[in-house]
Automatic annotation (TrEMBL):
A GO cellular component annotation in the UniProt record: cytoplasm
Enzyme nomenclature, EC number: 2.7.1.12
Organism of provenance: Rhizophagus irregularis
Family to which the UniProt record says this protein belongs: Belongs to the gluconokinase GntK/GntV family.
SUPFAM superfamilies per UniProt: P-loop containing nucleoside triphosphate hydrolases
Protein name: Gluconokinase
Length: 175
């Protein structure tokens, strides 16, 4: 069985950084969801225009197809994916892998305060997501609840990166 571990959350929550860090440490594949956006989505976000459902559907399909394809050729027990997955129905779409009992999709929700996220966005260089887009993402976010949604792990991102990494490794070892 392959565990697909989707690091989810709004911009600047650390999806890419933490996903890369952990996947390198475990020598596991890492998929950067932002790389799978079509150029039109990137242009919209650079222009400060929030993505709509029509923009997200092909992108979510690309993310799902990518982790399914990699799972077919990888011998590793984990595949890490950075993908915002802000809405419940996006997570359900990604979680549902038909005709494949060899894949289990889990979400690691990287949760932080608005102030922390704003600070991180301000400190970032050369990223298409700008500060004015954070509010749109926070408004879109349907926070996952482990009591009512399957395969969710909530990670507090206000801690140091080493502590976040330790917590994630500990929690995924218990899956």
């Amino acid at each position: 069985m392959v565990l697909i571990l989707i690091l989810m959350g709004v911009s600047a929550s650390g999806k890419s950084y933490i996903g890369n860090l952990i996947s390198q440490g475990l020598d596991a594949p890492f998929i950067e969801g932002d790389d799978l956006h079509p150029p039109s989505n990137i242009q919209k976000m650079k222009s400060g225009i929030p993505l709509d459902e029509e923009d997200r559907v092909p992108w979510l399909n690309a993310v799902k197809n990518e982790f399914i394809n990699i799972s077919k050729t990888s011998s590793k027990p984990y595949i890490f994916v950075a993908c915002s997955a802000l809405k419940y129905n996006y997570r359900e779409f990604l979680r549902n892998v038909p005709d494949n009992n060899d894949i289990k999709v889990w979400f690691l929700y990287l949760k932080g305060s608005k102030e922390l996220l704003q600070q991180r966005i301000i400190e970032r260089k050369d990223h298409f997501m700008k500060l004015n887009m954070l509010e749109s993402q926070l408004n879109t976010l349907e926070e996952p609840n482990p009591d009512s949604e399957e395969r969710i792990i909530i990670i507090d991102i206000s801690k140091e990166v080493d502590k976040i990494k330790e917590e994630i490794l500990e929690k995924i070892s218990m899956i």
